[in-house]
Amino acid sequence: MTMQQPIQVPPADEAPAPQAEAAARVTPMMEQYLEIKAAHQGLLLFYRMGDFYELFFEDAEIASKTLGIVLTKRGKHQGADIPMCGVPVERAEDYLHRLISAGHRVAVCEQTEDPAAAKARGNKSVVRRGVVRLVTPGTLTEDTLLDARANNYLLAIARARSSAGGDRFGLAWIDISTAEFMVTEVSGGELAATLARINPNEAIVTDALFGDNELGQILRELPAVTPLTRDVFDGATAEKRLCDYFAVATMDGLAQLTRLEATAAAAAVTYVDRTQVGKHPPLSPPAREASGATMAIDPATRANLELTRTLAGERRGSLLDAIDRTVTSAGSRLLAQRLAAPLTDAPAIGRRLDAVSAFVADSAAREDIRSILRGAPDMSRALARLSVGRGGPRDLAGIRDGIIAADQVLTRLSELDQPPQEIAAVMAALQRPSRELAAEFASALDEQLPLIKRDGGFVRQGYEPALDEARNLRDASRLVVASMQARYADATSVKGLKIRHNNVLGYFVEVTAQHGDKLMSPPLNATFIHRQTLAGQVRFTTSELGEIEAKIANAGDRALGLELEIFERLCGKALAISDDLRAAAQGFARLDVATSLAKLAVDENYVRPEVDGSLSFAIEAGRHPVVEQALKRNGEPFIANACDLSPAPAQKSGQLWLLTGPNMAGKSTFLRQNALIALMAQIGSFVPATRARIGIVDRLFSRVGAADDLARGRSTFMVEMVETAAILNQAGERSLVILDEIGRGTATFDGLSIAWAAIEHLHESNRCRTLFATHYHELTALAAKLPRMFNATVRVKEWQGNVVFLHEVLPGSADRSYGIQVAKLAGLPPAVITRAKSVLSKLEAQDRGQTARALVDDLPLFAVPTRAATEAAPPSEAEQLMEAVKALQPDEMSPREALDALYALKAKLPKS
Ligand SMILES: Nc1ncnc2c1ncn2[C@@H]1O[C@H](COP(=O)(O)OP(=O)(O)OP(=O)(O)O)[C@@H](O)[C@H]1O
C-alpha cells in the first residue's frame, strides 16, 4: 500500500483559502499556484502553463524522480530557487498513468480563461486557473489509464464500533468507468476476504480508520488507501448526499440500504463528485449484495490457488488466464468478477449453466455470436467517458456500433429454440436502447473519426446544412490560396514560389534564398512583406493572403464550433438513455461469458457439473485446468483422478482424505484441481472432469505452498501456522478445505504432532470436506480411529532404481517418499545421494511408524474442548493462593493485619 498524506479536497464549488503570508512575498503567478496547492495537499499539482503542465517545489522533485524527467528551476521563492519540471500536455496521459501506478494522486489545474482576457484586465493579471479534476487510482475513466480486462474499483469502508466487540463494516464500491455500484455490510472477521474479492484499486477511509492498528494490516494489502476527513463518512448526512447524487427525494425506491451501507455509499459518491470536480458521472443505483451470496475465499487461498494471478504476480499461468476465452473487454471483466465471487445459490448457478449448455449444444450459434461480439465496442466505458466530458467522436460511434451489434445478436439469438432464462434476460436487455438513436448517429458521424473532438471533421457531409456551408467556404478559400500561388509565381517569374502554412506564421509565401532579394526590392516589395529569412528560404506575406487567411480561419472556426455543438447534442441523447445502453452493454458481457465458457467446455472437453444443496463432493476423472493445458502444449497427457468426499449414506458430513505419496507425484496438483473444480462449478462453468456432483461450498480454504512474508515479519512456518489457525477456527460443515504438508516447516516431531492434532480437529470439530496431503506416513494410522477419514496415495513405479511417476490417485497409503530418487533426478552429486541412502536406512531401522501405531492405540481420541473451557477455565487452588500472596503489601500492614492475612492464607489451603 502506498501510505498517503491525508488529502484535503475542497468541495467543488468552494474557493481555496488564500495564503496571506505567501502572498506578501511572491509573484502573482506563484501566489495563485500556492493558493491552489494549499487547497490540494497530498496531491501532485499539474499546473497548466501553455502547452505544458508544470510541477513546482516538492511535487517537481517527486515527479522528476518517478518519471525520469529533468528537474529545472524557475525563479525564486523566499530567496531560494524553485525546483520545477514539466510534462507536455499532449503526452500528459502517459505521465499520469505512470504517476498513478506509482501510487501518487494528481490534481489537474487548467487555465479557465483565454490569456487575452487576462491581459485585458491589466498587464499584471494572471490567467485564471482552477482544478478541473483529481486523478486518483480508483477514479479513472480514460482507456489509456485503465486495464480493459479488469474493473477499476473505488471502495469506501465505513466502520461501526460495537462495545460488545465485533465491529461491523459498511462497504461500497464503484467503477466509474462502467457505472457499477455495489454495497454490502460485513463483520470484522469477513472483512479481509471481502476486500480480497473486491480487489479495489483505491480505498477511502476516515483518518481514524487509517491510523487504526488492527485494521492497518488489512489495509496494507490494498494498492492505495486514501484517508479523508470524518464529514465524508458522516452517517447523519449520508442519505441526503445519496439523494442529491441520484436526484431523488428518497433512496427507498432505488435501494434498501442499512445505515452503515448508506454511510459508505455516500462517502463513495462524495469522493467521486470531488475528484471529478462537479461533473456528475452517472452511476447505477447501489445494488446490495446479500451476505453469504458468494463463496467466501480468504486472501491467502486466493493467492495460493492462483485464481487471477500466479504467486509470481503474472496473469499468465493463473486460472483466469486458462479459462478466459472471452472476446470483449467487458466480458473479460465480468468473468474476472465471477471468478472472484462464485455463487452459493444452486438455482442461480443452474441458470448460468443452462446458458452455457445451450451454446455447447449449438456451436454454430456460439461462433456466430462470438464473431459479432468480437467487433462490438466497449459501450459502458465509452458512455462513462462521455458522461464526464472526456469522450470523443469514437465514443459516439461506439454507442452507434453497439446498438447495431445488439440487433445482429438479437437476430441470431431469435433463431434459438426456447432460449434458457439467462439468454432471454440478455435478449430483453439488448432490446432496450432506442434504435432511432443509432440511426441518427449513423447519419451524423463520418466514416473516419478523429480521436479528439477538437480536431473536427467527424460530422458527415449532408447532416447539417449550416456546417456544410461553413466547410465549403473554408475549402473554397483554400482553393483560392492554390490559385494565388500560380498567380504570384507568374507575377514574380519565380517558378518555385510556394504558399505554405504553419502555426506560427499562418499562410506565407516562400521562395528560395536566391530569389529573396528580388521580392524585397521594388516594385515587388510593395506587395510582398518580408517576414522571415531562414538558411535556404525567405518568407513573405501579402495583405491579400492575410485577408484570405482570416476568412479561412473564420469559416474553419465556425465549422468546428458547429461540429462541437452537434457533438454535445448527440452526447446528450446518448446520456439520456444511459441506463438502457448500460443494460445492453451488460447483456453483451453476459453473453460473451456464456459463449466463451461454452467454447472452453468444448475445446477442453469439460462436463456440466451437478450443483445442489447437498454436502456431496464427487468428481470422476477430474483434471487440473491449468496444468492440463500446460502439459497439452508440450504434447503430454494429464492423468485424470477421481475424488469423493461425499458423506457415506449413514453419515451426515463429509470425508477427510489423507493423501500420501512420493515427492513430485502430483499431490499438490490433485488438491488444487479439486478446489478449482468446485470454484469453477459455482461460477457457472463446466468443469474438467467426466462427472462432478458438488454440494454448495460456502467457504473455500487452502493452505498450500509456502512463502515467507518477511515484509510482515513472518517466517515461512509462522505464515503456515497463521493460515492453518484460520482454517481450524473458521471452517464449517459446508466448507471445502485443502491442506498441503502442514507442519513441514518445523522439526519432524513438532510438525507431525501438529498435523496429527489438526486432522483430528478437522474430523471431529470442523467436519468439513477435507483433502490433506502429507509426507508424514505415520498419519495414515489415524484412519483406524477416524471413521470418515480415508487414505489415498499417488502411485509411482520403481524401475531400475529410478522412480516413474504415474500420477494416479488410488486408495491406500504410501510407505516411502522417494525423496532421494527425486533429489537424484534434480542432479544432486552422486556422493551426496549415496551418503543420504545410508543415513536413510539407519533411520528407517528405528521405525517411526511403529511409534505412530502405538500412539493411535494409546492416546484417547482427540476431545474437542468446548470454547468456554479453553477461554475461561477457573483458576486452580495453587493459582488462587499465589494471587493472594501477590496482593499482600507487608510494609503497609499493622502486625494485627499481617496475622489475619496469615490465617486467611492458611484457610485457603486445600483441606486434607
Ligand atoms: N495428474 C497428473 N497428470 C500428469 N502430470 C501431473 C499430474 N499431477 C502432477 N503432474 C506433474 O507432476 C508435477 C509435480 O506435481 P506436484 O507438485 O503436484 O507433486 P507433489 O506430489 O505435490 O510434490 P511434492 O511432494 O514434492 O510437493 C507437476 O508439475 C505436473 O507437471
From TrEMBL:
Domain DNA mismatch repair proteins mutS family: 735-751
Keywords for the protein's UniProt record, in alphabetical order: ATP-binding, DNA damage, DNA repair, DNA-binding, Nucleotide-binding
Family stated for the protein in its record: Belongs to the DNA mismatch repair MutS family.
Superkingdom, taxonomy of origin: Bacteria
PANTHER family: DNA MISMATCH REPAIR PROTEIN MSH1, MITOCHONDRIAL, DNA MISMATCH REPAIR PROTEIN MUTS FAMILY MEMBER
Role description: This protein is involved in the repair of mismatches in DNA. It is possible that it carries out the mismatch recognition step. This protein has a weak ATPase activity.
Name of the protein in its database record: DNA mismatch repair protein MutS
